[in-house]
């Protein structure tokens, strides 16, 4: 068995730690005991689901131990009315050690760590103890009670604080209920029509697969018992070649033809469908040119952006001024500008928590943020299932501040502060974001910064930050 050191200590190692499985912090140098004679080094507190493990080294190098003296140290965990003692550590002088071995050890438990101090020598005692973990230990103090007279009396509270364990409250926010869960599925189809014609041939060129994309998108929603279609919109586009007025006629009538064909196949009422068109897709043309490597790209972009010219004038300028570039656009870009965009608007019925848990696995876009949050509450915070829900929520609602805040909280519980800051960047400097940054400062052990951020959150209206401030000041 090994031993420990002497004199009074009450060392405040204020590291605010969010406990998660296998969360631990080590310290290479710590408080001193027994009148500065013993240094506590390599202090480590580990928390698992079922145990609290405390380990440390007692450096006796500076301890000049009287031969007949005995120091007894009792590590313990304490929080308000609760406490739990750990196996003791006994450091004996030369004569006291003889007494200890001849029967003096009987007053100690069998798991005592005992050592004889050999003065004027380098000597280190390694100590480790395990106690069952209980919920009250989430916010507790790890102490050592000192008995420097060897009389067994620690009632005078001659103790040294080794560490404050603080588990911050994670400021998750319940999303607001979504009154009507409105969703949109959209896509782009490239339907081929014969030149200057508005007649649709379903078997023409790539039309079978392109038409199938539209039909399938509508039927998936239509056949889902959880959804109701409210509108189907088809928007037709033509490319810039040919006169603008002619392209307007083509885009409009091709969109109407396509809409009627689709309506018959999906068997939905006329009132559900909306038809619209854009005569020429100049936005698509500009996007292509901006990304290409045409020799006269910049000049063509200037022409596209020159809205002082009408569309026909712009198209003819590109065609006549840069004919080689125009031929590339005509063959490589213009076919893609003749497309039909489609949108399926629908509403989704509400789900119970049990239903939402299953929907989350197959089609999470049908869920509201609140429904996902309620599913998460059925799992242990910090667990893989819990974190997966939070990550899914922010993936489905990437711009939502509540989704990003909750995903950041989940990252913090994993100790991934960089990942948390990525999400917090979308939350801004809201009181809730300040609150979570205060929690991160607590976990880093930056007491002053944590207090500043929590106060800022409270001043901004986040009253829940007071809870973490209270933990910080315990």
Automatic annotation (TrEMBL):
Q: Which domain of life is it from?
A: Bacteria
**Alphabetically ordered keywords of this record:** Signal
- What region holds the DUF3868 domain? 38-102
Write down the InterPro entries for this protein, in alphabetical order.
DUF3868 (IPR024480), OmpA-like_sf (IPR036737), TPR-like_helical_dom_sf (IPR011990)
Signal peptide location: 1-26
The protein's name is DUF3868 domain-containing protein
């Amino acid at each position: 068995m090994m031993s420990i050191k002497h004199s009074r200590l009450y060392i405040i190692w204020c590291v605010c730690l969010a406990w998660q499985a296998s969360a631990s912090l080590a310290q290479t140098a710590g408080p001193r005991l027994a009148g500065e004679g013993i240094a506590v080094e390599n202090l480590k507190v580990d928390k698992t689901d079922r145990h609290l493990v405390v380990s440390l080294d007692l450096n006796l190098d500076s301890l000049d131990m009287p031969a007949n003296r005995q120091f007894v140290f009792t590590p313990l965990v304490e929080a308000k009315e609760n406490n739990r003692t750990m196996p003791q550590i006994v450091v004996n002088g030369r004569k006291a050690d003889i007494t200890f071995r001849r029967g003096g050890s009987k007053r100690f438990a069998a798991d005592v760590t005992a050592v004889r101090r050999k003065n004027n020598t380098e000597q280190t005692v390694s100590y480790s103890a395990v106690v069952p973990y209980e919920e009250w230990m989430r916010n507790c103090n790890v102490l050592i009670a000192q008995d420097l007279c060897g009389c067994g009396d620690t009632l005078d509270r001659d103790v040294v604080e080794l560490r404050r364990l603080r588990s911050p409250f994670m400021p998750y926010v319940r999303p607001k209920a979504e009154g009507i869960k409105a969703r949109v599925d959209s896509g782009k189809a490239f339907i081929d029509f014969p030149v200057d014609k508005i007649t649709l041939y379903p078997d023409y060129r790539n039309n079978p697969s392109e038409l199938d994309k539209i039909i399938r998108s509508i039927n998936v929603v239509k056949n889902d018992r959880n959804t109701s279609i409210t509108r189907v919109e088809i928007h037709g586009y033509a490319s810039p070649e040919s006169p603008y007025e002619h392209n307007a006629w083509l885009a409009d009538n091709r969109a109407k033809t396509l809409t009627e064909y689709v309506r018959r196949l999906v068997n939905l009422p006329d009132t559900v469908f909306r038809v619209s068109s854009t005569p020429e897709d100049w936005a698509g043309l500009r996007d292509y040119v901006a990304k290409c490597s045409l020799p006269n790209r910049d000049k063509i972009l200037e022409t596209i952006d020159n809205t002082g010219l009408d569309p026909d004038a712009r198209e003819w300028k590109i065609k006549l001024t840069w004919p080689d570039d125009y031929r590339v656009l005509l063959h490589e870009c213009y076919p893609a500008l003749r497309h039909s965009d489609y949108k399926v608007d629908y509403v989704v019925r509400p789900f119970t928590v049990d239903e939402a848990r299953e929907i989350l696995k197959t089609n999470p876009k049908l869920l509201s943020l609140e429904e996902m949050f309620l599913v998460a509450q059925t799992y242990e915070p910090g667990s893989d299932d819990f974190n997966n829900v939070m990550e899914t929520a922010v993936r489905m609602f990437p711009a939502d501040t509540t989704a990003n805040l909750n995903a950041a909280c989940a990252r913090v519980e994993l100790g991934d502060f960089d990942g948390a800051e990525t999400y917090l960047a979308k939350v801004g400097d809201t009181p809730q974001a300040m609150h979570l940054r205060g929690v991160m400062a607590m976990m880093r052990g930056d007491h002053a910064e944590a207090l500043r951020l929590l106060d800022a959150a409270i001043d901004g209206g986040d009253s829940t930050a007071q809870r973490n401030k209270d933990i910080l000041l315990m």
